[in-house]
Amino acid sequence: MKEMNRREFLTLTGVAVVALSLAGCGGPSTPPEPPAPPASESKEMALFKAINEVWYEVNREVVPNPKLDICKSVVYCQEAADLAKFTASPFETYEPEVDEEDYRKWNLPDDVFHEYQLRESEMIQEIRNKYGNGSYRGTAGVSNSTHDGMQLKQLYPRSPSEVREFVRYLAGHGLASPHPEQWMIGLYCPTIKGKTYTVAVMVNFAPI
Predict the structure, then answer these.
(1) pLDDT tens readout for residues 2-52
(2) Nearest partner of 168 among 189, 180, 154, 182, judged by Cα
C-alpha cells in the first residue's frame, strides 16, 4: 500500500475546506432551504431520483404503525453529500490492502486515520449545528470504525429491485417523523477499480 504523510492525505481529500457557517446551538426555528442539486445527471442524481420513485412505497411497507406520518420523499442535502464524499475519500486515495473479486479492505496509517476521524466528526457536527442536534441519522455503505479492515459495503444499485433493496436498508423500520417532509439525503458513488459503490448520509431537520 502506498504510504502518504498526513499533509499529502489532507490535501488530496480536501480536508482544508473552510467550515460551514454555524447556526445557533439550538438549531434554526424553521428548516433551512437545502441547496438545489447540480443540473447535470451524475450517478448520484440518477440514484437520488430512483430512490424517490420508490421511497414512500417502501416506507409504507416497513413502518410498524400505520398512523405515523411517513416520509414521502427525501430532499437532496449538499452537506450530507459532502460528508459522504469525504467518508469515501480514503478508499479513492489508498490502494486496498486486500483486493479480491468479492472482497476488498483498506488499512490506513494510525495518524492519517486519526485525522480522518476528526474531520468526519467535525462535518457531522456542522450538520447538527445547521439542522439540529438530532439531525444526523447515520452513514450507510461504509465500514470505517477502525483503521484496519475499512470497507465499502454497498455496490451502486443498478436495477429497480436493487434500488428498492437499498431504500429498504436505508429506511430500516420506516422513517416516520413529526416532520416527515424534512428528511434529507446525500450520496457519493465512487468508481474504484471497475466497481461503483454508494455511500449515503441521512439527515432529518430536528431543531432540538
Answers:
(1) 455 555 544 444 443 333 333 333 444 455 554 454 444 699 999 999 999
(2) 154
d(CA 62, CA 84): 25
CA distances from 164 to 55, 109, 170 (A): 8, 37, 10
Task: Identify the burial level of 81 via C-beta atoms within 10 angstroms of its C-beta, where 0-12 means exposed, 13-18 middle and 19 or more buried.
Answer: buried
Mean pLDDT on 171-178: 64
In order of 69, 90, 126, 153, the CA distances from 177 in angstroms are 6, 34, 22, 27
pTM > 0.90: no
In 3-77 the beta strands, taken as DSSP E runs, fall at 75-76
C-alpha grid cell for residue 12? 488530496
Strand-by-strand arrangement of the 104-107 sheet: 98-99, 104-107, 148-152, 142-143
Cβ 183 vs Cβ 69: under 8 Å: no
Which pLDDT tens digit goes with each residue over 110-135?
999 999 999 999 999 999 999 988 88
Report in angstroms the alpha-carbon separations of 17 from 27, 54, 88, 154, 192. Answer: 22, 35, 16, 27, 24
CB 23 within 8 A of CB 130: yes
Question: What is residue 98's DSSP assignment?
Answer: E
Distance separating alpha carbons of residues 180 and 206, to the nearest angstrom: 11
Q: Is 178 helix (H, G, I), strand (E, B) or coil?
A: coil
- pLDDT of 83 reads 97
